[in-house]
Each structure stands twice: as structure tokens, then as C-alpha cells.
Specification:
The structure is a single chain. By secondary structure, the protein is an alpha/beta fold. It has two domains: 156 residues, 3-Layer(aba) Sandwich (Rossmann fold), CATH 3.40.50; 67 residues. 43% of the residues lie in helices and 13% in strands. It is built from nine helices and eight strands. It has a six-stranded parallel sheet with strand order 5-4-1-6-7-8, with helices on both faces. It has a two-stranded antiparallel ribbon with strand order 2-3. α1 packs across α3, α2 crosses α3 and α3 packs parallel to α5. It is globular. The model has no long low-confidence stretch (mean pLDDT 95).
């Protein structure tokens, strides 16, 4: 019996938009933890970065210690502020996401997982707010299911953790041609390639089709298509 198809999904800009609620929560956390009046965004690019990586760069940019304890403290504050900011904004699933997730969930040969730079608690808050948490339950019912920023500051480390978790879940290695990493940034494409997965890029986040095309993903769309076209393009049996 062939291995199931495994879909590793990015969150922000791919599955949903929070209308920058995450950025607002992070800025509030920085003001509180670092005790600063003016937060400087210069040189800090959120797109495709992990929460741990962003935290480290932010602390360093403001001349603060950037050890693991300091990063954990900043992220804990961010996680505590995120739900209220999500409630103040009209975040939602992006176009095409719900029909595709519904279709994939109905198939017995598909495993849906997350591969995200969000922390686990941050991912839970965002997915819950946008009505997507139900699609990412593990075999034991726990959600969200996948790999998160806790696996490391680098995207490739999170990808490896997700790949290993998939193998553990299905009882053996999953061939690269049956793994798909879906995201909206060059970081998603590169980390997918690092685990030998087929990479699917969508220009629904902060990068254009041209910028994503330069990374040579296996498939590229301006936005997710209808489920039939999605299945056909990805060559699912």
C-alpha cells in the first residue's frame, strides 16, 4: 500500500491573513518586555521568518541580550497578547483555502500537517480565530498538528521536524514525490527543497509571482485554485 500524500502547510499568507494582528501583538510585547517607548521596525522583515528568528533579530537590533531565555520571555508575552489583537481585526482564511482543505480532509490517503514559523500557541490562536484549526488534528486528536518555531529558529530545522513527525505518524519514510510544502515565501520553497518535498508557492502573501518564480518552486499560483484543478496540478491519484 503506498504511503499517504502529506501536505505541509504554512500559515500566514498561505492559509490565512490576520490583517497584521500578529505584528501588532509582537510590537506590544516588545514595548513591554524591552521597556521601550519607540519600536524600530527598520531592517526587520517578518515575511517567511520564524517567530524565534524574528525575536532574536529584534532583541539584537535594540541592543538587548538575545539568548534563549530572553527569546522565550518575549515570545511568551507575544502569545499572551495575540488573542486580543486577533479579536480586533478581520482575519480570515484566504481564497480557495477552505474548499481545498475540505476536499483533502475527505480523502483517506492524505495527511494534513502544519510547517510554520509560528509558535504552537500562536498557530493555535490564529487557526482558531479563522476557523481552520479543525483541519489540523493529529491522529490522537491533538491540535494543531505539525512542526512549529519550537523546533528551531531556522526554517529548515522546522521542515526536518515536520518530515520526521510525518514518518513517525504513518509508520515509515514518506517519499518526496508524495510530500508537498505549500507556502507564500521563498523560505517555504527552500525549506521544502531541503527535505526533498515538492514545493508549491502561492503569491497570496508578501512576495510577487516573479519573486517566487525565481526560487523555482515545483508549482506556482497567484492564489489557490479550485480543488479539482489543485488535485490535477499536483498529480494526485
Amino acid at each position: 500500500m503506498p504511503s499517504p500524500y502529506v501536505f505541509f502547510w504554512d500559515i500566514d499568507g498561505t492559509l490565512l491573513t490576520t490583517q497584521r494582528a500578529g505584528a501588532a501583538a509582537f510590537e506590544e510585547a516588545c514595548r513591554q518586555v524591552m521597556e521601550i517607548d519607540t519600536f524600530d521596525w527598520k531592517g526587520i522583515d517578518f515575511r517567511g521568518q520564524t517567530d524565534r528568528g524574528i525575536s532574536r533579530r529584534t532583541l539584537e537590533a535594540h541592543g538587548r541580550p538575545a539568548d534563549e531565555e530572553a527569546i522565550d520571555r518575549l515570545l511568551a508575552c507575544y502569545e499572551s497578547r495575540l488573542p486580543s489583537h486577533l479579536g480586533q481585526r478581520d482575519g480570515a482564511a484566504l481564497p480557495g483555502v477552505l474548499p481545498i482543505l475540505e476536499h483533502l480532509r475527505s480523502r483517506s490517503d492524505v495527511l494534513l500537517m502544519l510547517l510554520t514559523g509560528n509558535t504552537r500557541r500562536g498557530a493555535h490562536a490564529k487557526l482558531s480565530r479563522c476557523g481552520l484549526l479543525e483541519y489540523f488534528h493529529g491522529p490522537d486528536g491533538a491540535a494543531p498538528f505539525g512542526a512549529f518555531a519550537e523546533a528551531g529558529a531556522l526554517r529548515d530545522a522546522i521542515a526536518r521536524a515536520a518530515f520526521d513527525l510525518a514518518a513517525q505518524t504513518v509508520g515509515g519514510p514518506v517519499p518526496g514525490e508524495r510530500c508537498f510544502v505549500i507556502g507564500d515565501t521563498p523560505h517555504d520553497v527552500s525549506c521544502g527543497k531541503s527535505i526533498g518535498a515538492r514545493t508549491v508557492a502561492v503569491a497570496t502573501g508578501g512576495f510577487s509571482e516573479g519573486e517566487l518564480r525565481a526560487c523555482e518552486p515545483w508549482r506556482l499560483w497567484p492564489r489557490l485554485p479550485e480543488p479539482d484543478a489543485f488535485v490535477s496540478a499536483l498529480e494526485l491519484a
